[in-house]
Amino acid sequence: MTTLTFKVSPETGFALKAAAARKRISTSKYVRDLVEGRLKREKPFKSAYDAMMEIGAIGCFNSGKGDLSTNPKYMEGYGKDNHRRRATRRAA
Questions:
Q1: What interhelical angle do 27-41 and 10-23 show, nearest 10?
Q2: From CA 16, how far away is CA 6, in angstroms rounded?
Q3: What are the tens digits of pLDDT across the range 16-70?
Q4: DSSP annotation of 25
């Protein structure tokens, strides 16, 4: 078991000792039970990816083209400066 040390106000310390005495358990066990109970009620952490998957926001758009990432024709012009490309089109 890991030891955790923290400070509380005198009033809180007295209240913890009194509550533990009423239950006839150690103050340490009483605090441990409080913390464990609270942690069980906490919602587990979700990454942004998990949250988006849960609401169906990932993969919900269909371009109609199944090979967008592998077909070289769709990659034509990718990474080029659009401003320059537009200027060339206007001049032509």
A1: 100
A2: 13
A3: 999 999 999 999 999 999 999 999 998 888 899 888 888 888 776 666 677 777 7
A4: S
